[in-house]
Amino acid sequence: MLPVIIDAKLCKKDELCVHECPLSVLTVEEKGLIPTVHPKKTNYCINCGHCMAVCPTGAITLTAFDGQQATPFSKEELPDSAAVETLIKTRRSVRKFKKKNISVQEIGELIHISAYSPSGHNAQPVSWTVLDTPEKVYELGKVVVEWMEEMVKQKNPLAEKLFLAGLVNAWKKGNDAICRNAPAIAVAWAPKLGITPQADTIIATNTLELAAHAKGYGTCWAGYVILAAAYSTKVLRHLDIPEEHMAHGALFLGHPAVRYRSIPPRHEAVAKEQDGKFIFHARPNTH
Ligand SMILES: Cc1cc2nc3c(=O)[nH]c(=O)nc-3n(C[C@H](O)[C@H](O)[C@H](O)COP(=O)(O)O)c2cc1C
Asked: pLDDT per residue over 96-145, tens digit each?
């Protein structure tokens, strides 16, 4: 089965697809002919759909997507750069949520948007575990706290660095600084081995975060959950994450109970020219 199907009736023989394909899967045997899949490259296609995306006549479909058409869009539909900048700058880590659940359907929609994130070789290796009630998030919190207690008991240096004892004590007093009493969590995971699974997972999580903000939901990265999942198989099992997989992203989700009225400042990276290169030095927070 060939990965790319070109409709001969629609093809204008402009060769845009041939020039666009990142793996040179498409070729034209002779000027003026309809492009074909290079016989030695039938396995090279990564289903990125760039051939479809550049085709002005919709002549191309991918076998992997059962002949589904690409979705046309016009430039006018794009948000202007000021709107995108505002979206990025107004996103905040939300740590207080209304007592209102966010449904698994709503989270599913965000997950589907995040599937449009870039991934190395278009591998799209990211799966998600969603807990959609505060009770389920609390149960996860209990397993994370168990791991924290173990780290404290073992005098693991990380326990001191991250004040785990304090977090455990607060949890026991009913103050949840670990899961923030969130009504839902979406944990992103991928195989440990692959092309760029860690980067892919983090990018997918960040994309979901921005999509959620655009729709008015609040999110916060669940750093302790990610950390606990890296150390504790019990946490991984609780999240139904299979062996040889890792969680690199996790977001608490809900309806924000806080309204942010302004954008706090951030340091701009300082640019310096060095041997013809420009280094934008981070200015890390000191705290
Ligand atoms: C990888 C990662 C892990 C984080 N983990 C937590 C966390 O466990 N709990 C929390 O309250 N905030 C967490 N945060 C949120 C950061 O504290 C927050 O992004 C930072 O203070 C800047 O605030 P802002 O997101 O509102 O711009 C995490 C952020 C990142 C990127």
From this structure: 999 999 999 999 999 999 999 999 999 999 999 999 999 999 999 999 99
CA 229 to CA 247: how far, in whole Å?
Answer: 6
- Indicate whether 112 and 230 sit together in one domain: yes
pLDDT at res. 222: 98
> What's the CA-to-centroid distance between 285 and ligand 1, angstroms?
13
Which residue positions in the chain have pLDDT lower than 70? 287
Q: How many domains does the chain have?
A: 2
Best mutation site among 140, 158, 209, 220 for ligand 1 pocket (most ligand atoms within 8 Å of CB): 220
Q: How far is the CA of 119 from the CAs of 69, 123, 195, 220, 222, in angstroms?
A: 21, 6, 9, 22, 22
Q: Are residues 115 and 204 in the same domain?
A: yes
Boundaries of domain holding 32: 4-65
User: Does the beta carbon of 95 lie inside 6 Å of ligand 1?
Assistant: yes
- 97 CB within 6 A, ligand 1: no
